[in-house]
């Protein structure tokens, strides 16, 4: 309609109660759900624009909408429409082009060419309001304006009220009163094109329910929850189970059960709130009959549900949310079936176990996870969604469910993109002021076998690489049986078995990680490249994988913490994470951006040992890296888990691993954080920290000289001080697990004398590694007889440890590169100079027998095709400069405090079965 002349619609002229037009409003994005609902009422609606549905109804159907609509916001009777006068205007628009350059454009547009409040006054004044209500009635105006319309909303509302009042004054010399609880609600809407007037027959927003007696943070609106249930086809009755893993205050659960019981949500407003009670065409007898019939129907359906209830599971990690859900269910009138509802405080980490026991043919999993407010850090929301989908699929498949639907709300599309939904549908809508995305559809319940599970030995002929192919297939055939027995999908399947094919091959589920050990300088580059290409072709042919599923790296000698830095060839924008399954945990791995993947598969058994010891225990993970052991401990039910590592980036990776497994990052136990991630130098932190732990896991690097702390760390040299400090933090009956990948590591005898030490390397080396040449060494350490022995006095150890800190961590600074390469200390102490001199002599002797060439140890007389010594760990952490420890002939000493100074005192070399006791001499 292009004219600006008011078009006044008299809805009561020749009004037919059996056929009249209504406008039903809803929140933007819920139009389709409202059409689905109207269709279930036997009505055909038409979408006018966002949030507006037009429908023809009878008075009885109108009452039915008011009683039963769960999606509608308001039910409006049209009165009139007015199009504002427009004029052409030229505006300047400044924007950026694809190259970031500023671009100015001139646009021709239409703008309003009249005063909006006065136009609204004239529009409303031309209607005979006495045909709507009388002098004895009260009224109120509510104006809704579009953000594109620049107007003072309060003043514009006042002008509409003035128009109605003036209309009555002209006819009767008096006017009806305005009230906050009026008999008649006038609703006006205006945008930059036109304005509309309606009689609001609903009187109030229909989305409000009477059952919400307890709220949680950022609750889901009831009409939005109902709309999403319609979109998920819950109303059809095909689903026999409903699961909400993060139920909050229980809006989804409550709305779904009320919908299944056919509860008339309008019953809560029947006493006074509706806006049609004083309407001239209101039929109170018809209305009361509809109310009575709806109430009887609900109670009959509720009795049927109580006799044959659907499976309903509502979980939340927050006890307050579980309480709120319970109270709201009671307030909604669902008490007869509440005993059949499983309502538990449980995080998503326990969802898989819950779903594995479900008995249902077609469940619906629907939930509204936190968007970031509850966790506080949005970086960990996407892993939460990712892990939610994995847990749901694994749990349902364990239960034997073959058909299920999933529906999840998210604040970002990329979050819901992680869900395993077939042919997903996405709805953009709003929860309050927040734009959200609703992803729903059928779950993909097909399981893809891992590469080791799907391997089948075949006859493959390739003369150039036949030797490698034969050995590779032999390894896979042997390991497949063992992997199936232990339920392992991440394993090493080839480790430089043949001298001419010097690579390590690891499988991570359905991905292949190939690491080429950089060849010695005497091997021509073209020869090395040709052999490596033969390996890659063989891997793809044997495993039947695509090129994009094979990730390659060249392993070279690393200095300090280079193995923890990003791959220089990695795309900084990529950061593609893949999920590896290990036992009951999901763990992120990265094949491209770092030299390490984030998961050391040789410690698979050790992580399980830590998990088995962690239930209801306080766990400390030192040198935590990506917190994989911490995840296993938390999943096993640890009372608390503290992860300490120097790298904040790796701890963030660890937090993502926690979120991936549904572990609540801000969970508390007895008022303190349950999971802590501490970015700190382990030596400094453990020295200053005083908390006690029941389980401690230490897996340090062989050598490190990170810029973040002063000095260096050498596992052979520093393990005694490290373990002693850790044992000071271990409870009397606790256990410490120590592991490292320095294959020539020797545990200091003083530790065996002081503590109960058991070598458990044979238990921690997996079936996919050579037990005769263990890739790591591991120990179980306890206090003797369950009693802590911090020497005779902790002062002496602390003093000795302080010397270690001062002379090892502070004297050898990272900036002294030349001193580091020579492995010498710059120290004024003659004893330290002698010790370092002998250490250098030992290194020179060591280099004569074993040369480091490109990341592996090889005899200098042998060619690339010769036999190599692969005793060293092939992880990135162990391809770094190492300092061998010299067993010095120098007499052993202890440090005593004499006259306030620490003095080295010789110790008798005779061995005894008793632990050495350290004493402090009194001052003379």
Distance between the termini: 108 Å
**Content of β-strand:** 15-25%
Please give the count of helices. Answer: 25
Number of strands: 38
Helical proportion, percent range: 25-40%
**Which class best fits the helix and strand makeup?**
alpha/beta
- Regions with pLDDT < 50 over 5+ consecutive residues? 559-564, 570-574, 791-890, 897-901, 909-924
State the shape.
Answer: elongated
Q: Major beta sheet, specifics?
A: 8 strands, mixed
Calculate Rg over CA atoms: 37 Å
The averaged pLDDT comes out at: 83
Would you spell out the secondary-structure blueprint of this structure?
Elements: E1 7-8, E2 20-25, H1 31-40, E3 46-49, E4 52-57, H2 59-68, E5 74-83, E6 86-96, E7 102-112, H3 116-125, E8 139-145, H4 153-172, E9 184-190, E10 194-200, H5 222-231, E11 241-244, H6 251-260, H7 284-307, E12 311-316, H8 319-331, H9 335-338, E13 341-345, H10 351-355, E14 363-367, H11 381-398, E15 405-410, H12 413-416, E16 421-431, E17 434-443, H13 451-454, H14 466-486, E18 490-495, E19 503-508, E20 511-517, H15 525-543, E21 550-555, E22 578-582, E23 585-589, H16 604-612, E24 618-622, H17 628-635, E25 640-645, H18 648-660, E26 668-669, E27 672-673, E28 675-679, H19 682-688, E29 693-698, E30 703-704, E31 713-714, H20 715-728, E32 730-740, H21 749-754, E33 755-759, H22 761-764, E34 777-783, H23 794-810, H24 817-822, H25 830-849, E35 851-853, E36 856-858, E37 893-898, E38 901-906
Parallel strand pairs: 8-9, 11-12, 11-14, 12-13, 14-15, 20-21, 24-25, 24-29, 25-28, 29-32
Antiparallel strand pairs: 1-5, 2-4, 2-5, 3-4, 5-10, 6-7, 9-10, 15-17, 16-17, 18-19, 19-20, 22-23, 26-27, 30-31, 32-34, 33-34, 35-36, 37-38
Helix pairs in contact: 1-5, 2-7, 3-4, 5-6, 11-18, 14-15, 16-17
């Amino acid at each position: 309609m292009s004219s600006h002349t008011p078009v006044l619609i008299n809805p009561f002229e020749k009004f037919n109660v059996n056929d009249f037009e209504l406008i039903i409003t809803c929140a933007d994005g819920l139009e389709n759900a409202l059409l689905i609902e109207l269709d279930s009422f036997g009505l055909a609606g038409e979408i006018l624009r966002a949030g507006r549905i037009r429908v023809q109804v009878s008075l009885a159907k109108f009452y039915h909408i008011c009683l039963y609509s769960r999606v509608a916001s308001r039910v409006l009777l049209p009165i009139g429409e007015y199009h504002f006068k427009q004029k052409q205007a030229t505006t300047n628009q400044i924007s950026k082009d694809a190259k970031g350059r500023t671009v100015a454009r001139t646009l021709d547009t239409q703008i309003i060419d009249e005063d909006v409040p006065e136009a609204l006054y004239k529009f409303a004044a031309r209607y005979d309001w006495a045909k709507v209500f009388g002098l004895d009635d009260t009224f109120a105006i509510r104006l809704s304006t579009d953000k594109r319309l620049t107007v003072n909303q309060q003043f514009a509302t006042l002008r509409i009220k003035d128009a109605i009042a003036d209309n009555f004054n002209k006819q009767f010399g008096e006017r009806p009163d305005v009230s906050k609880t009026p008999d008649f609600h006038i609703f006006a809407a205006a945008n930059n094109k036109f304005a509309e007037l309606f009689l609001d027959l609903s009187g109030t927003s229909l989305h409000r329910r009477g059952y919400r007696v307890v709220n949680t943070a950022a609750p889901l609106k009831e009409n939005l929850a109902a709309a999403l249930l319609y979109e998920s086809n819950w109303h059809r009755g095909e689903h026999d189970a409903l699961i909400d893993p993060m139920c909050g205050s229980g809006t989804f659960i409550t709305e779904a059960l009320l919908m299944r019981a056919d509860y008339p949500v309008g019953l809560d407003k029947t006493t006074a709130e509706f806006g049609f009670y004083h309407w001239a065409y209101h039929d109170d007898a018809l209305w009361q009959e509809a109310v009575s019939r709806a109430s009887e129907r609900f109670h009959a359906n509720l009795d049927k549900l109580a006799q044959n209830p659907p499976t309903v599971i509502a979980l939340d990690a927050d006890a307050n949310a579980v309480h709120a859900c319970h109270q709201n269910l009671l307030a909604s009138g669902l008490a007869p079936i509440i005993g059949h509802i499983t309502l538990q405080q449980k995080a998503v980490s326990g969802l898989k176990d819950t779903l594995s026991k479900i008995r249902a043919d077609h469940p619906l999993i629907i939930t509204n996870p936190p968007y970031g407010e509850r966790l506080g850090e949005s970086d960990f929301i996407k892993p939460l969604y990712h892990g939610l989908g994995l847990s749901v699929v694994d749990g349902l498949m364990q239960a034997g469910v073959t058909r299920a639907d999933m529906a999840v709300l998210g604040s970002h599309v990329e979050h819901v993109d992680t869900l395993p939904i077939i042919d997903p549908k996405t709805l953009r809508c709003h929860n309050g002021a927040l734009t959200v995305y609703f992803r729903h559809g059928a779950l993909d319940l097909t399981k893809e076998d891992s590469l080791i599970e799907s391997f089948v030995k075949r006859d493959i002929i390739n003369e150039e690489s036949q030797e490698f192919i034969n050995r590779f297939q032999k390894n896979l055939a042997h390991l497949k049986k063992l992997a199936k027995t232990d339920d392992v999908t991440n394993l090493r399947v080839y480790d430089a078995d043949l001298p001419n094919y010097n690579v390590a091959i690891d499988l991570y589920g359905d991905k292949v990680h190939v690491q080429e050990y950089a060849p010695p300088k005497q091997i021509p580059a073209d020869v090395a490249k040709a052999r490596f290409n033969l390996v890659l072709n063989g891997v793809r042919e044997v495993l039947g994988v695509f090129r994009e599923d094979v990730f390659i790296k060249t392993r070279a000698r690393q200095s300090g913490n280079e193995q923890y830095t990003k791959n220089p060839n990695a795309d900084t924008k990529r950061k593609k994470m893949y999920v590896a399954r290990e036992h009951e945990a999901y763990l992120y791995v990265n094949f491209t951006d770092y030299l390490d993947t984030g998961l050391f598969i040789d410690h698979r058994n050790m992580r399980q040992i830590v998990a088995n010891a962690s239930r209801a225990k306080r766990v400390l993970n030192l040198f935590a890296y990506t917190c994989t052991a911490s995840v296993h401990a938390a999943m096993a039910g640890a009372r608390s888990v503290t992860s300490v590592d120097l790298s904040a980036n790796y701890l963030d990776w660890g937090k993502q691993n926690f979120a991936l497994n549904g572990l609540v990052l801000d969970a508390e136990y007895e008022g303190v954080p349950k999971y802590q991630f501490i970015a700190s130098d382990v030596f400094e932190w453990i020295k200053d920290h005083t908390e006690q732990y029941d389980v401690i896991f230490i897996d340090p690097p062989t050598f490190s000289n990170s810029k973040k702390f002063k000095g260096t760390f050498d596992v052979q040299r520093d393990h005694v001080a490290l373990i002693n400090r850790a044992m000071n933090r271990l409870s009397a009956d606790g256990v410490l697990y120590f592991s490292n990948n320095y294959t020539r590591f020797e545990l200091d005898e003083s530790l065996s004398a002081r503590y109960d030490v058991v070598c458990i390397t044979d238990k921690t080396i997996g079936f996919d590694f050579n037990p005769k040449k263990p890739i790591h060494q591991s120990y179980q350490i306890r206090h003797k007889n369950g009693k802590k022995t911090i020497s005779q006095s902790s002062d002496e150890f602390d003093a000795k440890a302080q010397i270690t800190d001062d002379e090892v961590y502070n004297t050898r600074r990272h900036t002294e590169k030349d001193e580091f390469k020579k492995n010498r200390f710059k120290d004024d102490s003659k004893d330290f100079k002698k010790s370092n001199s002998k250490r250098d002599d030992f290194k020179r002797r060591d280099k004569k027998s074993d040369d480091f060439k490109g990341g592996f140890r090889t005899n200098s007389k042998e060619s690339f095709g010769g036999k190599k010594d692969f005793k060293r760990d092939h992880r990135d952490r162990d391809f770094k400069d190492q300092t061998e420890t010299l067993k010095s002939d120098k007499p052993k000493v202890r440090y005593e405090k004499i006259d306030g100074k620490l003095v080295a005192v010789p110790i008798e070399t005779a061995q005894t079965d008793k632990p050495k006791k350290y004493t402090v001499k009194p001052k003379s």
